[in-house]
Amino acid sequence: MNPPQLLRSPRVQAATVGLAALVLAVGGFEAGRYTVDAAAVTNSMATKSSEPASDLASSKKTAVENQADRIIVRDIATVPFSELYDVLKSASRDQLLGWARDLERMPRGPRQRAAVAAYYKSLIQVDHHAAIDAVLHAENLNMRDVAIVSLMKAAPESIWGDLAEMIEQLPHPRRLHSFSPEDPLSNWSRVDPVAVSKFIEKHPDSSLFALLYNWGAIDPAAAREWLERDTSRHTEEAFRAFLTGWAEIDHAAAMEYAVTNSARANFEGAVNELAYYLFRVSPDDASRLMSLLPSDQAKAAMKVVADRTTGVILHAPEDYQRPPDVVARWMATQPVDLWKEEIGGVLWGWMRDDADAATGWLGQLQPNVRDAALADFCRRGGEAADDPRRFDEKAIALGLTITDRNLRDEALGEFARRLGTTRDEAIEAIDQLRISNEQKAYLRKVMPEAVRER
Amino acid sequence: MNAKLRVVLAIGLLVLALTSLFIGRRVEEGALARKRATTDLRAKSPAPTVTPFEPTYRELAVTEILALPFAEFYEALRSAPGEAREKWAAELERMPAGPRRTAALAAFYKLLVQFDPIAAARTACEIKDKKVQELALDSVTGAAPGFALRDIAELFLKLPPDPSDYRKYLENVVSEWVVIDPPAVAKFFDEHPKTESVGRDELIRNWAALDPEAARKWMDSRGFGPGFEGEFFDGWYLNDRSAAVAYALAHAEDLKITTVLENALSALYVDSKEDAKKFIEQLPNDELRNKAFRGLKVNFGTAEETGEPDLTPRAVANWMTQFPPAYWREHLADVFAYWTEESPQELLFWIQQQPAMIRSAVADEYEKPTGKDTVETVTAVLQFATPDLRDQLLAAMFQHSPGSTWKMKEEIQNSSLPAEQKQHVLDIVAKVEKDDEAAREERARVENDQGSEK
User: Helix B117-126 to helix B99-115 angle, to the nearest 10 degrees?
Assistant: First the structure.
């Protein structure tokens, strides 16, 4: 029988063959998928996964390779996380701990530090239980320190609680010089202060500072309720942390709490800290706080402002210390009694920075304010005795302009006496000053010993 | 279509069908294997870090990041295109302040920096809100992978001119980078000389540990003086301990203006007290031995705290005092300074127990614990049965507090000590002051004589 006329056409024949090819290709593919025995694949995978994880990893051509049963992890410092992730994710717990031990046994030095840091930074993200386990069982304590610091840097936010528990279990926790045991609590309380409060209830020796500072800035009412609930928490550190945290979000409420509680035990540090914080970020609010505080406490707060300005504070944030001219100008807006014994050091600082500006500013003050400022400036002269840029002659010249005679004698007498550790030394120092003989005689006369002898 | 062509076509279609079948099987096996691997890992790991469901970036809102198990978040972020990541970063910045934003932001940047470090660092640098930027930059620098440190350091150079931030973040990056690739860090410093101070010491130490010759060459090319020899020695010691120590001994006289002798003794003490003893004995004279003891650096702590019994102040003091007093005179005080802060009574008891021949030299090193009450310390010393030792300890205590003798005197005068004891102590203070003055005069006389000789 001859084929139908239509099939004789070459175009139709080609189309028919093409269609048949497509049907066979799709049908074959689906049939192939269908014929796979799922159980067999499962078994084969089970066999594979019971092999060392490195065998799985090796096919990924990562830098972490199994060579003669010994994992080379020492070069992982520059391996991208995406590669490490796949390897670490596939590894068994034993293998992960084994790598950690292997790293501990590397020759000490930068390579070891780099490898340990990279390993723990990755592991904490992939399997934090394994990372914590490895740290808790570390034998090389120096490398354990490096590992912990790395964990703290790279830990996901959800595992701070586990890290805090780890620190509690850690043998010899105080050997960590580059790490504070408070670090996990500090990070954790930024994201979940309530959980941290429960942790601290379970571990009452923990520091309260980080929790109350962060909680005070997140939910002051809850933080306050928790703080007030237990008197053992009413420490100087706890009040200070809570109040400064609260002040970050609500100056007025923090000030009100400070003033209401200012007479409480262990509260003075908190008030002082608040005053300094407000002075830095909002001098007007700081002035308001000063006006609301009892005089003694306002004076103590003023002393803190002056001391922080003149002190050497290591690792302080850039704007933590305000320039002496700013501080002096603000102090002078407060009642004289609050600052008359504190402003001297600040003025010396300003004098060192810009003597002309400081002198000019002093010159335009009201006489009583100027007298008080200059008197303390002179009294504090001795504190700058080691400063090569002393302004002794300038201080004397300024001191001599104090209008209140008694105050002038007392301030310059104190200044003169502080020029030496003994009276004789001070007199010797006066003789060497470039001032008139009358002024030298005057200074000798007003020194405290000379006054007592009269 | 002729018969031959039909046969060829039939064979072709058969091959096609078989190939499709084979491909279908492979695809299905692969899919099953992936599914199985994921399920296995979930079963093996106590941490629910991996789930079979991995959402793509399209299914995620940024606020959901916190709620995601790490693996899901990781896969989503890894698969997201650059625009999606940038969109998330912008959304995060706009979230209301609070724990949720803190957690999400930290998690986002800690992970993003793993597979797109440049984008992470750049985006963090561009954040306007200072607090948000700090958190992002902390997360980026903390978790930054080793291979990207150079690029991140370059980006940080463009941070706004806030010296503390610029320094802090660059310093963090350099301290991670320097253990991985010191020559690259050196090149970076050469290209950006103003940044050098953020990690020059660390660079020299780590480079010398890996390649002392190259480190030395770089130091010479930069004209680094004796102030950097100590850092170089520390690194070299890790690289080749015997060569470094032999060099220190051979050039001890030349190195006395550096910290090399001190660093060598410190490192040897921690590694082997026997070798440290040999080192001291091999130094050519007592002056150099005393110099080596001057900077014995030990991270003190109790054995319980540090896990290292040789690091207790008692262990260090015992080791030092096996040598003649000329070796450690004036430097045992540094050990006492730590010891007396931690357990003042234990120190006093230890001094009392020293053999008579060195007890006096040991007592000369005693000083008052910082911040401890003078009267309390004096009372503790007065408990000693031996009058000579008592007086010597008190004299040493006043001698080591030159700046505050007057204050201590005042405290004693105002104390409730019996009048006789009070007078006795004040007499000792007076004698110390007199001796001190005589010593100062003697020094001045010698200086004058030397001046006139010149």
Answer: 140
Q: Which of these three, B344, B366, B388, is where a domain ends? A: B366
In-domain check, residue B104: yes
Domain of residue B327, residue span: 298-366
* Chain B residues touching A317 at Cβ < 8 A: 164
Which one is predicted more confidently, B404 or B214? Answer: B214
Paired tokens of A277: 């914080």
Tens of pLDDT, residue by residue over B300-333, are 877 777 788 898 999 999 999 999 999 999 899 8
Domain count across chain B: 3
The tens digit of pLDDT for each residue in B248-281 reads 999 999 998 899 999 999 999 999 999 999 999 9
Instruction: Among B317, B338, B366, identify where a domain stops.
Output: B366
Q: Let me know if residue B261 belongs to a domain.
A: no
CA–CA gap between residue B358 and residue A311 (Å, rounded): 40
Tell me, yes or no, whether B376 and B402 share the same domain: yes
Tracing tokens 């001994």 back to the chain, one arrives at: B249
Closest CB to A92: pick one of B37, B44, B71.
B44
Q: Are residues B386 and B358 in the same domain?
A: no
B101 is a domain residue: yes
Q: Are residues B121 and B62 located together in one domain of the fold? A: yes
Say whether both B422 and B351 belong to one domain: no
pLDDT tens sequence across A350-403: 998 899 999 999 999 999 999 999 999 998 875 554 555 567 888 899 999 999
Q: Which residue has the higher pLDDT, B137 or A180?
A: B137
Q: Are residues B138 and B60 part of one domain?
A: yes
Judge contact between A185 and A202, C-beta under 8 A.
no
Query: Could you report the per-residue pLDDT of B85-128, keeping only the tens digit for each?
Result: 888 888 888 888 888 889 889 989 998 998 889 999 999 998 98
- Note which residues in 115-154 of chain A have CB less than 8 A from chain B: 117-118, 121, 125-130, 141, 152-154
Q: Kindly tell me if the per-residue pLDDT of B161 is higher than 80.
A: no
User: Is the per-residue pLDDT at B45 higher than 70?
Assistant: no
Whether the predicted pLDDT of A69 surpasses 60: no
> Quick check: B295 and B269 in contact, CB under 8 A?
no
Write the single-letter amino acid at B169: Y
In a domain? residue B79: yes
Domain shared by B432 and B421, yes or no: yes
Using the Cβ of B309 and the Cβ atoms of chain A, whether some distance falls under 8 Å is answered with no
**B contacts of A153 (beta carbons < 8 Å):** 141-143
Asked whether residue B311 falls in the same domain as residue B341, the answer is yes
Residue B2 has pLDDT above 90, yes or no: no
3-state SS class at A432: coil
ipTM: 0.77
Q: Which residues contact A258 (CB under 8 A, 6 or more apart)?
A: A243, A267, A270, A271, A274, A289, A293
User: Across the A/B interface, how many CB contacts are shorter than 8 Å?
Assistant: 208
Burial pattern A394-431, b for ≥16 Cβ within 10 A else e, equals: ebbebbeebeeeebbbbbbbbbbbbbbbeeeebbebbe
Pairwise CB contact (< 8 Å): B24 & A81: no
Shared domain check, B410 and B331:
no
Round the average pLDDT of chain A to a whole number and report it.
85
For the ranges B64-78, B135-149, B166-180, B429-443, the lowest mean pLDDT is seen at: B64-78
